[in-house]
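Intended use. Records like the one below are meant for learning the mapping from a protein sequence to its folded structure. Do not use them to infer anything beyond what is encoded.
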Amino acid sequence: MAVTQVELAISVALFFIFFVIIINFLINFFTNFTGLTTTSELRTDAFNLYNTLFAGNGIPSNWNYLGVTPARVGLADNLYMAPFLVSDLNGTARNNYTINFTMSFDPNCLNTTWETTIRVYNASQNLFAYTLYNKTYCVSSYLKQADFAINVTVPASSSRMFFIYYSPDRNITNSNYPTTSFPPFDGNYSVKIYPTQTFVQVSYSRLIALRNLVYNYLRLTLGSGINFQIQVFNQ
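Structure written out for the chain above:
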């Protein structure tokens, strides 16, 4: 049966419509594919950069105190937290009451505790003043052990949890607390110190050292094609 001009025109029109749809689909597909590829590459670069900067201390591990460009940059450092529980034992409410206890920070002298980094908080994240007595050091200002004198508030026949934070970061300055006198012995309260927990933090001293490095040398340690800018504010 012969094809009329009308049928031919309709067939050609339908062909061009489907052809345009297919071309549009292919363009969208390859455009999205390119976008996905670019996103994947950026994600990989970001992951590698994160691991380079935050997965360790760097090589050498104390590069931030040497004043030279390290073979590998690392901004991570350890943050330690030692919980301790203060309990009243004789039904006396203790309001701003001075207690003392001995804290063993670093018995193996791994230089984990720079003295000026020590902070004490309660469960509500309120900062508490303290004074250290009978201090022994591993080396320099790295503490091994010390006695705390600190004022706490504990209701009668109750307990309250506190937390000691410290790190090996030498660039953390000391808080100017008023001196707390060392109290006489009192056996009517107890202090239980729990095992120390270790966390990973971004080191302030390493950020300061990173800011002072020669930019072009630092780029070589991070790999080609990586540009960045860093600002560190001391507050």
